[in-house]
């Protein structure tokens, strides 16, 4: 299944580099571009949607609270 998110070529390369740096630092092993790209694809497909949805819910809560504040100053 394809990821519901799209990255620019530059963003994808930046994330691949971050994954490679992390893996080298934490596991003392190098990941090639292909391996790191597959790992990025997995994260984007399986994990990123959950964080996206959390952001949507947080935004909804924020906007709802601001609307409540707006209605509180309504003149009667």
From TrEMBL:
<dbReference type="InterPro" id="IPR018680">
    <property type="entry name" value="DUF2164"/>
</dbReference>
<dbReference type="Pfam" id="PF09932">
    <property type="entry name" value="DUF2164"/>
</dbReference>
<protein>
    <submittedName>
        <fullName>DUF2164 domain-containing protein</fullName>
    </submittedName>
</protein>
